[in-house]
Amino acid sequence: MKIFVYVDHFKGEAQATSWEALGLAKSFGGSSPLTTTAIVFGSNVDDVAKAALEHGADDVLVADDPALLDFRAETYASTLSALVSSRTPDLILFPTTTRTREFAAMSAVDLNTNVITDATAVEVNGDSFVVTRPIYEAKLFEKVTASAKPQLITLRGRAFPKPEKVAGKSGTITKVEAKTDALTTVEGYSVADVGVSLNDAGIIVSGGRGVSNNPSLQPPAGLDDKQAEIWRAHQGFKLVGDLASTLGGAVGASRAAVDGGYIPYSNQVGQTGKVVAPDLYIACGISGAIQHLAGIRSAKMVVAINKDPDAPIFKVARYGVVGDLFQIVPALTEAFKKKLGK
Amino acid sequence: MKIIACIKQVPDSEAKVKAEGGQINTGDAPLVINPFDEYAVEGALQQREAVSGSTVTALCIGPESAKEALKHALAMGADDAILVSDSALNNLDTVGAARVLAAAIQKIGGVDMVVFGRQTLDNGSGLTSAQTARALGWSLLGLAGQIKVEERTVRVERVIEEGRQTVKANLPAVISVVQSIGEPRYPSFMGIRKASKAEIPVWSLSDLGIAAPDAIIKRSELMNPPARETSVEIISGESPAEIADKLADKLIAEKVL
Ligand SMILES: Cc1cc2nc3c(=O)[nH]c(=O)nc-3n(C[C@H](O)[C@H](O)[C@H](O)COP(=O)(O)OP(=O)(O)OC[C@H]3O[C@@H](n4cnc5c(N)ncnc54)[C@H](O)[C@@H]3O)c2cc1C
Ligand SMILES: Nc1ncnc2c1ncn2[C@@H]1O[C@H](COP(=O)(O)O)[C@@H](O)[C@H]1O
Q1: What does the domain layout of chain A look like in residue ranges?
Q2: Would you identify the CATH topology of the domain A203-340?
Q3: CATH topology classification for A2-175
Q4: With 80 as the cut, is the pLDDT of residue B175 above it?
Q5: Looking at chain B from residue 192 to 231, which residues have their Cβ under 8 Å from any Cβ of chain A?
Q6: A179-205 pLDDT, tens per residue?
Q7: Positive or negative, the Cα torsion across A222, A252, A250, A246?
Q8: Cα–Cα distance, A296 to A219 (Å, whole number)
Q9: Model confidence over A15-60: pLDDT tens digits?
Q10: Any idea what DSSP says for residue A150?
Q11: What is this model's ipTM?
Q12: Which of B108, B128, B141, B205 gets mutated to test ligand 2 (max ligand atoms within 8 A of its CB)?
């Protein structure tokens, strides 16, 4: 069996789920010999290729070209489609990211197959793969299979174990042709200082509308009501951020906090934001609306801090504190600093 | 500009959805326009306002009942709507939907911009926009939080994991939008009246001149999620410090750190 694993990266920084995909590929033992080939696209991506070998790839195919420096769905899709046509893998695994959804989708059109997204489990059944994935905002799960080859599957982050890294492990790195016919031009980035990515985070501390609700904070003079609210919310998110960084976690938010202008959309968790799967999710001043819960169904443990004992978030929480987040969150940060020796 | 907004009809997000005897039961929840596609309609209407002489057509593949979702788009302000409906289309996957949408867009003709939602609530794969772009041979500007058209160039600010990215392409183009595009406008009174009277044309596969695409992805089983342990332990104490101390000990003992 021939398996390709696409390693997604942003400016050379690989998405950890790519390694989870390599681990999964290696786990498909069975009778037939198995090769696991990592696929890396970009410009000057030798380090990503080496990291793929260290995470278990047997070999690596690299399309390295200045025209692939910026991700564009059409060039990446054409490069992949050409590679697949000549090397005929049975299965291609991807981490689920904004990029892979787009270019795997296009490649599937080229190759007369389709993509199964957000896999939370993959089983081998003869020479095809049966994939479990959430539907209806994770209110249900379905098992699906693709009737065409190759099967393209994107994996949900943190759903599969990460393989051990073997430092210095070597293997063949082969250059392949980049297809560079582009329809779009990338003009620039404003890269947010996102800290730990929500996708890979083991711990997430999130803030909701409640982070702006501290009447005793006195905003600087000259702000109108809306500006004062945002100023208050920033003080609240600072406390949330301090707790997150003490625990080595990421910062999330409810939609009310995003719509209020407290924090960028990229931090939003939920149905219209990100679906996350941390070991620990701490919700501060979040009521627990069904659309927010849709994003945290795969969290192993939820902790809620909320003034309102009847807030629905307590129904999905393992531990709860009924109280003012402006008092509890900083106290929790202090407690962890002491206990974890930070 | 001739703008198309692609929308789907789905069960409301408040619906209690269960697997029963291998079927999906959505109870008595209403069917609504896919919430992500309200942003698509909003984005399309913003572009109509920005470029004079533009029109917005809402396009949907679905059963006869999906006319209600199209009427929502009309009530928001779309100029007209088209339903593609055919009994041979009951088992579409995203590539199939993309091929049918591409055929409809070609039949409409002279289209400059097609706006999609980020994903559907039911299937939720977020593939159809890129696949439609590929089937048409047009550029994809995905996950736009902002759209700006100048002459025949369209620029979007794309919202990705790592921040924002400015990308441009020539028209015609396929665009998918995210929530940052702006809150979908409420249907106006006039809009609702117009929508209630609208005659929505229905196109079959033979109108499009294509055969029903085979579904490549097939479902073999449907499952309810494992029941979640729901008993919450409320941590209380004399002071925030005491509560924090107890909670920190619990979490350290749970080994989730
Ligand atoms: C189609 C659709 C999609 C949506 N998608 C999303 C999504 O992706 N993500 C999302 O989050 N929402 C989403 N929503 C919105 C969702 O329905 C809720 O409106 C939103 O989650 C509410 O955010 P919140 O909990 O922060 O605010 P609220 O519901 O206003 O709750 C604030 C909470 O803070 C508590 N509080 C106030 N002050 C304090 C304090 N000082 N200390 C402690 N607690 C305090 C209050 O008791 C309250 O429970 C969506 C809605 C729709 C219709
Ligand atoms: N049946 C359909 N009719 C019209 N547009 C659709 C249909 N299905 C999906 N779309 C569009 O494609 C987007 C992505 O859908 P999906 O790939 O299923 O997550 C949606 O937000 C819609 O804009």
Answers
A1: 2-175, 203-340
A2: Rossmann fold (3.40.50)
A3: Rossmann fold (3.40.50)
A4: yes
A5: 214, 216-225, 228-230
A6: 999 999 999 998 776 678 898 899 999
A7: positive
A8: 33
A9: 999 999 999 999 997 667 899 999 999 999 999 999 999 999 999 9
A10: S
A11: 0.96
A12: B128
Does A150 sit behind a cis peptide bond, omega within 30 degrees of 0 on the bond before it?
Answer: yes
| Among A254, A274, A308, A314, residue to substitute to test ligand 1 (most atoms within 8 Å of Cβ) | A254
* Fold: same for A2-175 and A203-340: yes
The protein residue whose alpha carbon is closest to atom 18 in ligand 1 is A289
Residues of A in contact with B125 (CB under 8 A): 101, 115-118
Q: Quick one: how far is CA A303 from the chain centroid?
A: 21
Locus of tokens 């390709």: A4
* Model pLDDT for residues A271-330, shown as the tens digit of each residue: 989 999 999 999 999 999 999 999 999 999 999 999 999 999 999 999 999 999 999 999
Buried/exposed B132-144: b ≥16 CB within 10 Å, e otherwise:
bbbbbebbbbbbb
Binary contact (B179, A332; C-beta < 8 A): no
Radius of gyration for the alpha carbons in chain B, expressed in angstroms and rounded: 22
Is any Cβ of chain B less than 8 angstroms from the Cβ of A102?
yes
